[in-house]
Amino acid sequence: MIIIDYKDTRPIYEQIVDKFKVLILKGAMRPEEQMPSVRNLAMELSINPNTIQKAYAELERQGFIYTVKGRGSFVSDDGRLVEERKQEYLARIVELAGEALEIGIGKPELIAAIEELRA
Q: For tag attachment on the chain, is the N or C end more exposed, with fewer CB atoms within 10 Å?
């Protein structure tokens, strides 16, 4: 499920956060699904449990998961989360497209580049 890239310059907890965010946004982890326990995931990845705990705290802060004392962490059932992320990505794409147009990349080139993604 989660693979750590030790060549990545980002801290391990950030990699874990990003991997879980992708799994949640893609629907691979469903709302109300229980997250792996801190201890089990730490053993599976051979890393310190405090690193997992830090990643879970960040995921909770961002609204991707919630914790039930004594039961563990669960994927949030917040349908707005996916929609908010889509809007963030669209805003970033529009910003980048504007910059591309400013430096002379034409609209047909941008459309062609996007169409290549679908292939």
A: C
Amino acid identity of residue 67, one-letter, is T
Contact 79, 72 (CB under 8 A): no
Give per-residue pLDDT as tens, 17-56. 999 998 988 889 999 999 999 999 999 999 999 999 999 9
pLDDT digits (tens, 9 = 90+) for 98-114: 999 999 999 999 889 88
